[in-house]
Amino acid sequence: MTFDPTTLRQWWPKPDAPRPIVIFGAGSIVGDAHLPAYRNAGFPVAGVYDPDAGKARVLAETWGTRAFADENEALAVQGAIFDLATPPATHAAILSKLPIGAAALIQKPMGADLAAATAILTICRARQLKAAVNFQLRFAPMMLALKDAVDRGFLGEIVDFDAWLALATPWGLWPFLKGLPRIEIAMHSIHYFDFIRGLIGNPHGVHAKTIGHPNHDVPQTRTAAIFDYGDRLRCVLSVNHDHDFGRKFQACEFRISGTKGAAYVKLGVNLDYPRGEPDELWIRPAGGEEWISVPLQGAWFPDAFANRMANLQRFATGEDDALIGSVEDAWQTMALVEAAYQSSAQPATPLAPLPRFEP
After folding, report:
1. Which CATH superfamily is domain 7-137+305-327 in?
2. H or E element, residue 308
3. Phi, psi dihedral angles at 177 (to 5 degrees)
4. Using CA atoms, how far apart are residues 168 and 214, in angstroms rounded to an integer?
5. Full-model pTM
6. SS3 of 97, please?
7. In the chain, what percentage of residues exceed pLDDT 90?
8. What are φ and ψ of residue 350, in 5° steps?
9. Phi and psi (nearest 5°) for 150?
10. Architecture of domain 138-300
């Protein structure tokens, strides 16, 4: 089996006739990722709505689209794909107003906790929405290529997955996070939880500890987690957003080892965020003796957002049979997140006391 890195899949096919996209929310992620991705992909954007009309107007003018005067005007766009780039607390209310049978993309997380995710799932089922959650890491060019390599047998059976992050994340860029009780796993590592599920399936359970840092008031910025896949597969995540000592020894990377080959992934966007660095994917394929760099045709930000939207658009038009990251699937990622928080809240097994020495 010859390994040719240029044959690995990196893009999702585009729909033949893209539907207009209506965006709810005018936060930084819309200008940094959604709108540039949609423009590059040629997806039509009907407009943006935000309760802060001034913010929506500035964003719309910058990107040459429309700022809706009110929510009803946004909801009235015929045949729209509704893109909810909104805080988790607002998802349910917006979904409850979408037209029956509409297609929707929901910003992660799928609610603040599993109970909220269940309520959102119930709404989507009742309104027959074709809804997915924007866990777009699965759709990054490097991750599509990695998944393709795994599916084609270039790594053999995956037996090790290591995620290692040591970086400095500027939490102040997202003011809506202030006051939320769950931050690190719910808003960041959830991407990795979801990607791992998509690559190797659901674990049996999780051991986790997530904590803050004495230098600031963000509730959690550091997480250690072990996913239990039994006795053949080891899966470990070490995440530290407070390694703020210069770029030299910072890292944001995955190492995936199989019985026949291995892969290394650098997630460049998280390093020096929001400017970021180039993503990287290296594979040592089955039967190979050298690591091979996969020439990437795009980056997680913003290209994964175009791939994510392409799958939803094609599912809405019947061109794709499967909706990747549907609310049904995303609920399971939320269940894994909930299990991690529950594990973190449990006391650790205490150490046995040192035996007394009696001379």
Report:
1. NAD(P)-binding Rossmann-like Domain (3.40.50.720)
2. helix 300-317
3. -75, -20
4. 14
5. 0.96
6. coil
7. 94
8. -70, 150
9. -65, -45
10. 2-Layer Sandwich (3.30)
